Structure formats: C-alpha cells, structure tokens
Amino acid sequence: MVSVLLRTEAPAAGGSSWRCGLVVSKAVGNAVVRHRVQRRLRHIVMDLMRHEALATDPGHTMDLVIRAFPEITRMDHAQLREEVLRAAQRAHRKSLRRAVRT
After folding, report:
1. Banded pLDDT at 95 (limits 50, 70, 90)
2. 62 or 27, greater pLDDT
3. pTM
4. Is the C or the N end of the chain the one with fewer CB within 10 Å?
C-alpha cells in the first residue's frame, strides 16, 4: 500500500522534491525478514529518486509512505520495483485529484 501527500512548499536547496517512509510490521515476518524487506524497498526508492521516476510539479514536494504486506516476501526485485512504481504513481494521481478539488 502506498500513500502520497503533496505539499506546496519548495524543496530545500540541493534537496529532493520528495521523501519516503517505510512501514514494515511484524506481520511480514521475523526481524531478519523485516530488515531484508526494508533494505529492498530502500534500494528501490533510492533508484526511483535517482532516475526521477516520480516527478512533482515545480514548487511542490511529495511525501510517500510505503506499507509492506506479508506477500512482499514472495516478490522478486523486478516485480517489487514495478509494484512500488505503479502504486506510487496511482497514489500520486489520486493525491493530485484531491488537491484540485480543495
């Protein structure tokens, strides 16, 4: 599950236009499994940030929260990256629609 919050403030000088938080509960597995999931997600998020796969409008920043579910442990890297990207883009579009209405 991915949630997005768009904020109307410019990113800090030299900083990124978005940031990410990870939520990996005990339902995912024991400590070793949870930390492995966190490392995998962190690697994917850093890759997305480097390649600017999730672009924000100028003057906006984006907060992204990724909540891991137990089935994440059965995904390979390509599946997980695609799922994170697709869910983040979907949440970003939903957040944009919500911002337009207000």
Report:
1. confident
2. 27
3. 0.77
4. C
Please write the tens of the pLDDT for every residue from 20-59.
889 999 999 999 999 999 999 999 988 887 777 666 666 6
Name the H helices within 15-76: 31-50
Contact 26, 86 (CB under 8 A): no
* CATH for the 2-101 domain, from 3.40.640.10, 3.30.230.10, 3.30.300.130, 3.40.50.150: 3.30.230.10
CA angle at residue 36 from 30 to 39, to 5 degrees? 140
Within 8 A by CB and 6+ apart from 60, the residues are 6, 7, 8, 9, 17
Both tokens of 27, joined, read 């339902």
C-alpha 45/C-alpha 26 separation (Å) is 21
